[in-house]
Here is the input.
Amino acid sequence: MVQVRTGAYDCDVLVVGGGIVGLSTAYAITRAAPGTRVTVLEKEPGPARHQTGRNSGVIHSGIYYRPGSLKARYAVRGAAEMVKFCAEYGIPHAVTGKLIVATERSELPRLHALVQRGRENGITVRELGAAQIAEYEPEVRGLAAIHVGTTGVCDYGAVARQLARASGAEIRYGARVVRVDRRPERGVAVLTSAGQVVRARVLVNCAGLYSDEVARLAGDEPDVRIVPFRGEYWELARPELVRGLVYPVPDPAFPFLGVHLTRGIDGEVHIGPNAVPALAREGYGWGVVRPRELVGTLAWPGAWALARRHWLYGAGELRRSVSKGAFLKAVRRLVPAVGETDLVRAPAGVRAQAVARDGSLVDDFLLREAPRTIHVLNAPSPAATASLPIGREVAARALAMLGEA
Here is the structure.
Protein backbone atom coordinates (compact mmCIF):
# COMPACT_ATOMS: atom_id res chain seq x y z
CA MET A 1 0.00 0.00 0.00
CA VAL A 2 1.28 3.46 -0.93
CA GLN A 3 1.21 5.58 2.21
CA VAL A 4 0.10 9.24 2.33
CA ARG A 5 2.13 11.32 4.76
CA THR A 6 0.25 14.25 6.26
CA GLY A 7 1.90 17.55 5.41
CA ALA A 8 4.14 16.00 2.77
CA TYR A 9 2.21 16.80 -0.40
CA ASP A 10 4.15 17.01 -3.65
CA CYS A 11 1.36 19.05 -5.23
CA ASP A 12 -2.10 20.39 -4.53
CA VAL A 13 -3.83 18.81 -7.55
CA LEU A 14 -2.61 15.72 -9.37
CA VAL A 15 -4.03 15.22 -12.88
CA VAL A 16 -3.79 11.76 -14.43
CA GLY A 17 -3.74 12.00 -18.23
CA GLY A 18 -1.86 14.31 -20.60
CA GLY A 19 -4.51 14.54 -23.28
CA ILE A 20 -6.27 17.79 -24.12
CA VAL A 21 -8.84 17.54 -21.29
CA GLY A 22 -6.24 16.82 -18.61
CA LEU A 23 -3.95 19.60 -19.85
CA SER A 24 -6.86 22.04 -20.18
CA THR A 25 -7.80 21.25 -16.58
CA ALA A 26 -4.25 21.98 -15.40
CA TYR A 27 -4.24 25.19 -17.44
CA ALA A 28 -7.57 26.32 -15.97
CA ILE A 29 -6.52 25.58 -12.39
CA THR A 30 -3.34 27.66 -12.55
CA ARG A 31 -5.18 30.56 -14.16
CA ALA A 32 -8.06 30.53 -11.72
CA ALA A 33 -5.84 30.08 -8.67
CA PRO A 34 -2.25 31.18 -9.30
CA GLY A 35 0.16 29.48 -6.95
CA THR A 36 -1.75 26.21 -6.94
CA ARG A 37 0.75 23.41 -7.46
CA VAL A 38 -0.39 21.10 -10.26
CA THR A 39 1.30 17.93 -11.46
CA VAL A 40 0.23 15.99 -14.57
CA LEU A 41 1.11 12.31 -14.99
CA GLU A 42 1.16 10.99 -18.57
CA LYS A 43 2.18 7.44 -19.36
CA GLU A 44 3.43 8.29 -22.87
CA PRO A 45 6.69 10.13 -23.65
CA GLY A 46 4.74 13.22 -24.75
CA PRO A 47 1.25 14.77 -24.71
CA ALA A 48 -1.72 14.03 -26.95
CA ARG A 49 -0.57 10.60 -28.16
CA HIS A 50 -4.01 8.98 -28.30
CA GLN A 51 -7.51 10.49 -28.75
CA THR A 52 -6.29 14.11 -28.87
CA GLY A 53 -3.65 13.48 -31.50
CA ARG A 54 -5.52 10.90 -33.55
CA ASN A 55 -8.66 12.65 -34.75
CA SER A 56 -9.64 14.68 -37.79
CA GLY A 57 -8.97 18.02 -36.08
CA VAL A 58 -12.52 19.36 -36.46
CA ILE A 59 -13.66 22.32 -34.38
CA HIS A 60 -17.30 21.28 -33.97
CA SER A 61 -20.10 23.83 -34.03
CA GLY A 62 -22.42 22.00 -31.61
CA ILE A 63 -25.25 21.50 -34.09
CA TYR A 64 -25.74 17.80 -33.33
CA TYR A 65 -26.11 17.94 -29.57
CA ARG A 66 -29.22 17.97 -27.42
CA PRO A 67 -30.05 21.56 -26.34
CA GLY A 68 -29.14 22.09 -22.71
CA SER A 69 -26.65 19.21 -22.61
CA LEU A 70 -23.06 19.80 -21.52
CA LYS A 71 -21.96 18.83 -25.03
CA ALA A 72 -24.16 21.47 -26.63
CA ARG A 73 -23.22 24.26 -24.23
CA TYR A 74 -19.52 23.51 -24.20
CA ALA A 75 -19.21 22.87 -27.94
CA VAL A 76 -20.81 26.19 -28.92
CA ARG A 77 -18.74 28.08 -26.37
CA GLY A 78 -15.65 25.97 -26.92
CA ALA A 79 -15.58 26.44 -30.70
CA ALA A 80 -15.28 30.22 -30.35
CA GLU A 81 -12.73 29.88 -27.56
CA MET A 82 -10.65 27.36 -29.49
CA VAL A 83 -10.41 29.66 -32.52
CA LYS A 84 -9.36 32.52 -30.22
CA PHE A 85 -6.80 30.31 -28.42
CA CYS A 86 -5.27 29.18 -31.70
CA ALA A 87 -5.09 32.74 -32.99
CA GLU A 88 -3.48 33.97 -29.76
CA TYR A 89 -0.74 31.35 -29.81
CA GLY A 90 -0.21 31.09 -33.56
CA ILE A 91 -1.56 27.54 -33.82
CA PRO A 92 -2.64 26.51 -37.35
CA HIS A 93 -6.42 26.68 -37.71
CA ALA A 94 -9.13 27.68 -40.16
CA VAL A 95 -12.86 28.35 -39.93
CA THR A 96 -14.02 26.56 -43.05
CA GLY A 97 -17.69 25.84 -42.45
CA LYS A 98 -19.18 22.48 -43.34
CA LEU A 99 -21.97 20.90 -45.33
CA ILE A 100 -24.32 18.26 -43.94
CA VAL A 101 -25.83 16.56 -46.98
CA ALA A 102 -28.95 14.46 -47.41
CA THR A 103 -28.58 11.96 -50.25
CA GLU A 104 -31.89 10.09 -49.72
CA ARG A 105 -35.45 11.30 -49.16
CA SER A 106 -35.64 9.41 -45.86
CA GLU A 107 -32.89 11.70 -44.53
CA LEU A 108 -34.73 14.96 -45.24
CA PRO A 109 -36.78 15.00 -41.98
CA ARG A 110 -33.58 14.38 -40.00
CA LEU A 111 -31.82 17.17 -41.87
CA HIS A 112 -34.66 19.55 -41.02
CA ALA A 113 -34.50 18.44 -37.38
CA LEU A 114 -30.80 19.36 -37.36
CA VAL A 115 -31.71 22.84 -38.58
CA GLN A 116 -34.10 23.24 -35.66
CA ARG A 117 -31.59 21.83 -33.18
CA GLY A 118 -28.88 24.15 -34.48
CA ARG A 119 -31.11 27.17 -34.03
CA GLU A 120 -32.01 26.05 -30.50
CA ASN A 121 -28.30 25.89 -29.76
CA GLY A 122 -27.78 29.41 -31.12
CA ILE A 123 -26.02 28.30 -34.31
CA THR A 124 -26.62 30.02 -37.64
CA VAL A 125 -27.29 27.56 -40.45
CA ARG A 126 -28.16 28.03 -44.10
CA GLU A 127 -30.54 25.58 -45.79
CA LEU A 128 -29.56 24.61 -49.34
CA GLY A 129 -31.38 23.01 -52.22
CA ALA A 130 -29.69 20.49 -54.50
CA ALA A 131 -28.51 23.15 -56.96
CA GLN A 132 -27.03 25.34 -54.20
CA ILE A 133 -24.70 22.66 -52.85
CA ALA A 134 -22.25 23.35 -55.68
CA GLU A 135 -21.71 26.90 -54.37
CA TYR A 136 -19.69 25.35 -51.57
CA GLU A 137 -18.67 21.94 -52.93
CA PRO A 138 -18.84 21.49 -56.73
CA GLU A 139 -18.18 17.71 -56.57
CA VAL A 140 -20.75 16.94 -53.85
CA ARG A 141 -24.19 15.61 -54.81
CA GLY A 142 -27.30 15.52 -52.66
CA LEU A 143 -31.01 16.28 -52.46
CA ALA A 144 -30.54 19.04 -49.88
CA ALA A 145 -27.96 20.26 -47.40
CA ILE A 146 -27.28 22.70 -44.63
CA HIS A 147 -24.20 24.87 -44.28
CA VAL A 148 -22.79 25.49 -40.80
CA GLY A 149 -20.42 28.43 -40.92
CA THR A 150 -18.78 28.13 -37.48
CA THR A 151 -17.19 24.71 -38.02
CA GLY A 152 -13.44 24.70 -38.54
CA VAL A 153 -10.23 22.69 -38.20
CA CYS A 154 -7.06 23.01 -36.14
CA ASP A 155 -4.04 21.07 -34.90
CA TYR A 156 -5.17 19.69 -31.54
CA GLY A 157 -1.77 18.18 -30.87
CA ALA A 158 -0.29 21.68 -31.06
CA VAL A 159 -3.09 22.97 -28.81
CA ALA A 160 -2.24 20.31 -26.22
CA ARG A 161 1.45 21.17 -26.33
CA GLN A 162 0.67 24.85 -25.85
CA LEU A 163 -1.63 24.10 -22.91
CA ALA A 164 1.19 22.08 -21.35
CA ARG A 165 3.63 24.98 -21.72
CA ALA A 166 1.22 27.70 -20.62
CA SER A 167 -0.20 25.83 -17.62
CA GLY A 168 2.93 26.10 -15.52
CA ALA A 169 2.19 22.59 -14.24
CA GLU A 170 4.87 20.01 -13.62
CA ILE A 171 4.33 17.38 -16.29
CA ARG A 172 5.87 13.95 -15.85
CA TYR A 173 5.96 11.80 -18.97
CA GLY A 174 6.48 8.05 -18.92
CA ALA A 175 4.53 7.97 -15.65
CA ARG A 176 1.85 5.28 -15.83
CA VAL A 177 -0.29 5.02 -12.70
CA VAL A 178 -0.19 1.54 -11.18
CA ARG A 179 -1.57 2.12 -7.69
CA VAL A 180 -3.62 4.71 -5.83
CA ASP A 181 -3.93 5.09 -2.07
CA ARG A 182 -6.65 7.53 -1.06
CA ARG A 183 -7.25 8.56 2.53
CA PRO A 184 -10.09 11.11 2.74
CA GLU A 185 -8.56 12.73 5.80
CA ARG A 186 -4.97 12.67 4.52
CA GLY A 187 -4.95 12.99 0.74
CA VAL A 188 -4.02 10.81 -2.21
CA ALA A 189 -0.77 9.05 -3.09
CA VAL A 190 -0.08 7.57 -6.51
CA LEU A 191 2.60 5.06 -7.45
CA THR A 192 3.86 5.15 -11.04
CA SER A 193 5.36 2.38 -13.13
CA ALA A 194 8.76 4.07 -12.70
CA GLY A 195 8.51 3.60 -8.93
CA GLN A 196 7.81 7.26 -8.18
CA VAL A 197 5.31 8.21 -5.47
CA VAL A 198 3.37 11.45 -5.94
CA ARG A 199 1.31 12.79 -3.04
CA ALA A 200 -1.52 15.26 -3.61
CA ARG A 201 -4.43 16.81 -1.83
CA VAL A 202 -6.83 16.22 -4.76
CA LEU A 203 -6.73 13.76 -7.68
CA VAL A 204 -8.30 14.45 -11.09
CA ASN A 205 -8.71 11.43 -13.36
CA CYS A 206 -8.54 12.42 -17.05
CA ALA A 207 -7.13 9.07 -18.20
CA GLY A 208 -9.35 8.76 -21.28
CA LEU A 209 -9.18 5.18 -22.53
CA TYR A 210 -8.23 4.04 -19.02
CA SER A 211 -10.43 6.38 -16.97
CA ASP A 212 -12.59 3.56 -15.58
CA GLU A 213 -9.50 1.58 -14.58
CA VAL A 214 -7.98 4.56 -12.75
CA ALA A 215 -11.32 5.05 -10.97
CA ARG A 216 -11.18 1.46 -9.74
CA LEU A 217 -7.56 1.92 -8.62
CA ALA A 218 -8.82 4.80 -6.48
CA GLY A 219 -11.42 2.51 -4.90
CA ASP A 220 -14.42 3.85 -6.83
CA GLU A 221 -16.60 1.52 -8.86
CA PRO A 222 -17.88 3.43 -11.89
CA ASP A 223 -21.26 2.45 -13.26
CA VAL A 224 -19.82 2.41 -16.79
CA ARG A 225 -16.98 0.72 -18.66
CA ILE A 226 -14.83 2.09 -21.45
CA VAL A 227 -15.50 0.10 -24.62
CA PRO A 228 -12.93 1.11 -27.27
CA PHE A 229 -14.05 1.78 -30.84
CA ARG A 230 -11.45 2.19 -33.56
CA GLY A 231 -12.01 4.96 -36.06
CA GLU A 232 -10.47 3.98 -39.41
CA TYR A 233 -9.46 6.73 -41.85
CA TRP A 234 -8.43 7.04 -45.47
CA GLU A 235 -6.80 9.99 -47.22
CA LEU A 236 -8.00 11.37 -50.53
CA ALA A 237 -5.30 11.16 -53.22
CA ARG A 238 -7.04 14.01 -55.05
CA PRO A 239 -7.72 16.50 -52.25
CA GLU A 240 -8.87 19.09 -54.79
CA LEU A 241 -12.20 17.20 -54.95
CA VAL A 242 -13.20 18.64 -51.55
CA ARG A 243 -12.90 22.26 -50.47
CA GLY A 244 -13.87 21.94 -46.81
CA LEU A 245 -15.88 19.58 -44.61
CA VAL A 246 -18.65 17.32 -45.95
CA TYR A 247 -20.81 15.17 -43.66
CA PRO A 248 -23.78 12.84 -44.17
CA VAL A 249 -26.95 13.20 -42.14
CA PRO A 250 -26.21 11.20 -38.95
CA ASP A 251 -28.32 8.38 -37.60
CA PRO A 252 -29.58 9.61 -34.19
CA ALA A 253 -29.74 6.03 -32.91
CA PHE A 254 -25.94 5.78 -32.96
CA PRO A 255 -23.38 8.27 -31.59
CA PHE A 256 -21.06 8.21 -34.60
CA LEU A 257 -21.45 10.74 -37.40
CA GLY A 258 -20.89 8.42 -40.34
CA VAL A 259 -18.20 8.54 -43.01
CA HIS A 260 -17.33 12.16 -43.76
CA LEU A 261 -14.63 14.13 -45.59
CA THR A 262 -12.48 16.68 -43.79
CA ARG A 263 -9.89 18.99 -45.32
CA GLY A 264 -7.32 19.52 -42.59
CA ILE A 265 -5.03 22.44 -41.92
CA ASP A 266 -2.32 20.69 -43.97
CA GLY A 267 -4.56 20.64 -47.06
CA GLU A 268 -4.99 16.87 -46.96
CA VAL A 269 -8.50 15.41 -46.97
CA HIS A 270 -9.24 12.66 -44.45
CA ILE A 271 -12.21 10.35 -44.98
CA GLY A 272 -13.83 8.51 -42.09
CA PRO A 273 -13.95 7.41 -39.45
CA ASN A 274 -15.36 3.96 -39.88
CA ALA A 275 -16.19 2.83 -36.30
CA VAL A 276 -15.45 -0.78 -35.34
CA PRO A 277 -14.78 -2.50 -31.99
CA ALA A 278 -11.11 -2.40 -31.05
CA LEU A 279 -9.47 -5.49 -29.58
CA ALA A 280 -7.41 -3.36 -27.19
CA ARG A 281 -7.85 0.06 -25.65
CA GLU A 282 -5.06 1.27 -27.89
CA GLY A 283 -5.94 -1.12 -30.69
CA TYR A 284 -5.13 0.93 -33.76
CA GLY A 285 -5.34 -2.09 -36.06
CA TRP A 286 -6.90 -5.56 -36.18
CA GLY A 287 -3.49 -7.02 -35.32
CA VAL A 288 -3.32 -5.24 -31.95
CA VAL A 289 -4.88 -7.54 -29.35
CA ARG A 290 -4.45 -7.27 -25.59
CA PRO A 291 -6.15 -10.31 -24.07
CA ARG A 292 -6.64 -8.82 -20.59
CA GLU A 293 -8.33 -5.72 -21.98
CA LEU A 294 -10.42 -7.71 -24.46
CA VAL A 295 -11.59 -10.08 -21.73
CA GLY A 296 -12.48 -7.08 -19.57
CA THR A 297 -14.63 -5.65 -22.36
CA LEU A 298 -16.36 -8.97 -23.03
CA ALA A 299 -17.03 -9.45 -19.32
CA TRP A 300 -19.01 -6.22 -19.15
CA PRO A 301 -22.76 -6.98 -19.66
CA GLY A 302 -23.21 -3.65 -21.41
CA ALA A 303 -20.91 -4.70 -24.25
CA TRP A 304 -23.18 -7.63 -25.13
CA ALA A 305 -26.34 -5.56 -24.74
CA LEU A 306 -24.81 -2.94 -27.05
CA ALA A 307 -23.96 -5.60 -29.64
CA ARG A 308 -27.51 -7.00 -29.59
CA ARG A 309 -29.01 -3.54 -29.93
CA HIS A 310 -26.81 -2.29 -32.78
CA TRP A 311 -25.67 -5.48 -34.55
CA LEU A 312 -27.02 -4.40 -37.94
CA TYR A 313 -25.28 -1.02 -37.84
CA GLY A 314 -22.14 -2.69 -36.54
CA ALA A 315 -22.18 -5.23 -39.35
CA GLY A 316 -22.13 -2.40 -41.87
CA GLU A 317 -19.17 -0.79 -40.11
CA LEU A 318 -17.29 -4.11 -40.08
CA ARG A 319 -17.98 -4.62 -43.76
CA ARG A 320 -16.55 -1.17 -44.57
CA SER A 321 -13.53 -2.04 -42.42
CA VAL A 322 -12.58 -5.14 -44.40
CA SER A 323 -13.85 -4.05 -47.83
CA LYS A 324 -12.38 -1.01 -49.57
CA GLY A 325 -15.20 -1.25 -52.09
CA ALA A 326 -17.85 -0.99 -49.38
CA PHE A 327 -16.08 2.02 -47.87
CA LEU A 328 -15.82 3.61 -51.32
CA LYS A 329 -19.55 3.16 -51.84
CA ALA A 330 -20.24 5.13 -48.64
CA VAL A 331 -17.93 7.92 -49.80
CA ARG A 332 -19.40 8.08 -53.30
CA ARG A 333 -22.86 8.74 -51.88
CA LEU A 334 -21.49 12.21 -51.12
CA VAL A 335 -18.74 12.66 -53.73
CA PRO A 336 -19.40 10.44 -56.78
CA ALA A 337 -16.11 11.45 -58.46
CA VAL A 338 -14.02 9.56 -55.88
CA GLY A 339 -12.51 6.38 -57.33
CA GLU A 340 -10.90 3.36 -55.70
CA THR A 341 -7.38 4.61 -56.43
CA ASP A 342 -8.21 7.88 -54.67
CA LEU A 343 -8.34 6.14 -51.27
CA VAL A 344 -5.05 5.84 -49.38
CA ARG A 345 -4.88 4.30 -45.89
CA ALA A 346 -4.30 6.76 -43.04
CA PRO A 347 -3.60 6.26 -39.31
CA ALA A 348 -6.53 5.18 -37.18
CA GLY A 349 -7.76 6.50 -33.84
CA VAL A 350 -9.57 4.88 -30.91
CA ARG A 351 -12.54 6.42 -29.16
CA ALA A 352 -13.04 5.84 -25.43
CA GLN A 353 -16.79 5.21 -25.34
CA ALA A 354 -18.39 4.80 -21.93
CA VAL A 355 -21.06 2.10 -21.98
CA ALA A 356 -23.58 1.56 -19.18
CA ARG A 357 -24.46 -1.87 -17.79
CA ASP A 358 -27.70 -1.93 -19.83
CA GLY A 359 -25.77 -1.36 -23.07
CA SER A 360 -26.68 2.30 -23.48
CA LEU A 361 -23.96 4.56 -24.81
CA VAL A 362 -23.20 7.50 -22.54
CA ASP A 363 -23.90 10.43 -24.83
CA ASP A 364 -22.72 13.36 -22.72
CA PHE A 365 -19.74 14.28 -20.60
CA LEU A 366 -19.76 12.19 -17.43
CA LEU A 367 -18.06 13.56 -14.32
CA ARG A 368 -18.13 11.74 -10.97
CA GLU A 369 -16.89 13.05 -7.65
CA ALA A 370 -15.60 10.97 -4.75
CA PRO A 371 -13.61 11.94 -1.64
CA ARG A 372 -10.66 14.05 -2.83
CA THR A 373 -11.20 12.76 -6.37
CA ILE A 374 -12.87 13.81 -9.62
CA HIS A 375 -13.26 11.26 -12.41
CA VAL A 376 -13.86 12.30 -16.04
CA LEU A 377 -15.44 9.01 -17.13
CA ASN A 378 -16.71 10.07 -20.54
CA ALA A 379 -15.33 12.85 -22.70
CA PRO A 380 -16.85 12.13 -26.12
CA SER A 381 -16.63 14.16 -29.26
CA PRO A 382 -16.62 17.19 -29.14
CA ALA A 383 -14.20 16.90 -26.19
CA ALA A 384 -11.31 18.52 -28.07
CA THR A 385 -13.51 21.41 -29.26
CA ALA A 386 -14.96 21.84 -25.77
CA SER A 387 -11.69 21.28 -23.91
CA LEU A 388 -11.29 24.85 -22.65
CA PRO A 389 -14.74 25.16 -21.02
CA ILE A 390 -14.78 21.54 -19.82
CA GLY A 391 -11.33 22.12 -18.33
CA ARG A 392 -12.70 25.12 -16.42
CA GLU A 393 -15.61 23.02 -15.14
CA VAL A 394 -13.31 20.28 -13.85
CA ALA A 395 -10.90 22.88 -12.46
CA ALA A 396 -13.68 24.63 -10.55
CA ARG A 397 -14.69 21.35 -8.96
CA ALA A 398 -11.09 20.52 -8.09
CA LEU A 399 -10.51 23.93 -6.51
CA ALA A 400 -13.74 23.67 -4.52
CA MET A 401 -12.63 20.25 -3.29
CA LEU A 402 -9.20 21.67 -2.50
CA GLY A 403 -10.80 24.35 -0.36
CA GLU A 404 -12.60 21.69 1.66
CA ALA A 405 -9.57 19.42 2.07
Notes: DSSP finds ten helices and 19 strands in the chain. Residues 1-6 have pLDDT under 50 and may be disordered. Residues 11-51+158-223+363-404 form a domain with the FAD/NAD(P)-binding domain fold (CATH 3.50.50.60).
